[in-house]
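Two folds, back to back.
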Amino acid sequence: MSAPKLPFFVYGTLRPGEPNHDRFLRGRIRSEEPGRLTGAVLYEGPGYPYAVEEYADDRGGVVRGEVVTALPEAYGELLVALDRLEEYTPGDPRSLYERVAREVTLDGGGRTVRAWVYVAAPSVAARLRARGKPIGSGDWLVRG
């Protein structure tokens, strides 16, 4: 069974003005809208961030980004390209990220949409929770 054709929530190097935006998204997307993912904490990575989902305590914050809707004819190609960029292989414990479907709230009006989000894989998330540097604003673009 194939994955549903959901939009993508991007929060790091795929955001407008960041290095991977034009490289991966130009010509492949129909729209992008500002939004936020709740129940997650954003952490610094080596040149890119990780969203870490938080369930067990009240640390869960807000991660800011954009909801990107692919052009229908580019969806499959974009999904493969983003999985590769995020070093995500379903079922592979060495993956840095996992692609999960989550509710994301759009900024102008509060409507929610289900979107693919690349979150830190369990082993990466455990390391970040123990020793990582959270980005307090939840926004990769205003981290410094």
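---
second:
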Amino acid sequence: MPETARHRGAALAVLCAASLMVVLDGSIVAVALPAIQADLGFSAPGLAWVVNAYLVAFGGLLLLSGRLGDLAGRRRVFLTGLAVFTAASLAAGLAPNAASLVVARFAQGVGGALASAVVLGLIVTMYPEPGPRARAIGVYSFTQAAGASIGLVAGGALTHAFDWHWTFYVNLPIGVAALALAPLVVEADRGTGLRDGIDVLGALLVTGGVMLLGYGIVLPGWTFTTVGALAAATVLLAGFVLRQARARTPLLPLRLLRIRAVAGANLTMVVMVAGFLGFQFVTALYLQQVLGFDALGTGLAFLPAPVMIAVFSLGLSDRLSTRFSPRAVLVAGLLVTAMAFLLLTRVRADGGYFLHVFPALVLMGSGAGMAIPALMGLAMSAAGPADSGVTSGLITTTQQVGAAIGTAVLASAAAARTGELLSTATPAREALAAGFRFAYGLSAGLVTFAAVLAGVALTPRRRPAELRTADVGPTG
């Protein structure tokens, strides 16, 4: 990897800019959906696939992409994914009909998975020293934590100033610049080689399983299709685990899951992100459906969260982790975020943004800015150079699974509570606000559970020699 601080800084900037572009794409389109529906004639159920096609492909291919990076070279996989994502963004902007847009969004998900899965692995390889690595992970974590909120702002601004096509065209200059600069500043790595082959059966099982899991989660209601998709996903993922135990060159070496830091961090990530991303979805609905914000106003309303995430993840998180410990900072950040969600359980039908939403966004951004860099660092701390790609892909996969679960569960819970109140002749805005309050309570519960999980699962085990020394105590 590049040896000078200047080269490493330039490489980090390129990697994080590309990563931010991919993260933005998950949310930047959300505020443009009404305009897309009117222009291309999407049905109401079909419109959801403008988002879902991207998420299903992205989540399903992350683990495979990370392992490909370990075998074929992480820079090569990154550049391939970036090229696919940029070309698919152009195709999405030019889409003449609904079907072609959905296909282009699926291709964006493929490219996004290839590019994103190896970024964290490249960063930890570039920064072997603990201090610089913590700061670099803080920068990367900012792109992951704040990207969705920034996407809402950018999507609202682009749709308001131009039209929905520009939510895709905006990726082109970033993608082309990153493709031009990455070969100059990100040093090539050889990978461990494909001579022993890749576990094709394992790749098919995990890709199909995660895609079906995402598909089943995003489908509305407990229909036969939903249950069938989730059941098939369970079978495929169970088959994947069995395959990894026997494969000569496993896609996901199961020894990684026996590492306490890796397993604990991934479990914590699922629960944490379920609370975080579900909160974003519910808050966007509250701002629009209850407080009457338009698309641009909704995006701008989220700004306090990414600002505070930047303050903590870019400037304070690594210092706090050095002073205390990554685990302590993670737990503290999660508890601060849970307090933010508890504040949001006070939202009302006649509420105000600065009274009920703004303080919680500031608190939530502060907690997320502490928690996410600490968790990313813990997840990668035990990964060796040969496994950094698949470990990076694994933590990004669990992040996506958590986001899908959280959005589906919290949206369904809010809708169910609202529907229950509407059946009793409760005014619509009051029923909506009550549904959102219920969802915020669930978010607070999820994040509190993540804090407990992190406190227990990420507690370092003391080695037998250390235990014996502690039992004997000081002598003399």
